[in-house]
Amino acid sequence: MEEMKNENESNERQDPLANFSHSSSTKNKKGGWKSVKYILGNETFEKLASMSLIANLVVYMHTQYNMDTAFSVEVFNIWSGLVNFIPLVAAYIADAYVGKFHMLIFGGIASLLVNTNKLS
């Protein structure tokens, strides 16, 4: 009898999801290859915009601020690095301390204040 009990326990350990009929692998998943075209399109146009920004910003700094071309490219590289790094810092702060909804509210208010300051 005890031998039979041990045999049943070993079968249960081998397949814990055998009686679970609604496994996550059977559900219809969203995303994947259906949405990759939108992601690639977004990344392509974002890269196009940032690459065209290089030329415009360098020419602007060269003509308006009388900077050397090499120095204006260096300023652009520093600006580009900060623009790409700051969202990582903000994401860490949002995940670890603040929470995503509070960070979204803070970001929205900060963006509103900066944009309204440009108008005046």
From TrEMBL:
Tell me the segments the record calls region Disordered.
1-31
What keywords would UniProt list here? Membrane, Transmembrane, Transmembrane helix
Listed transmembrane segments: 75-94
InterPro entries with a match to the protein in the record? MFS_trans_sf
Q: Where is the composition biased (Basic and acidic residues)?
A: 1-15
Q: Does the keyword Disulfide bond apply?
A: no
Write down the superkingdom of origin.
Eukaryota
Q: Which PANTHER family match?
A: OLIGOPEPTIDE TRANSPORTER-RELATED
Name of this chain's protein: Nitrate transporter, putative
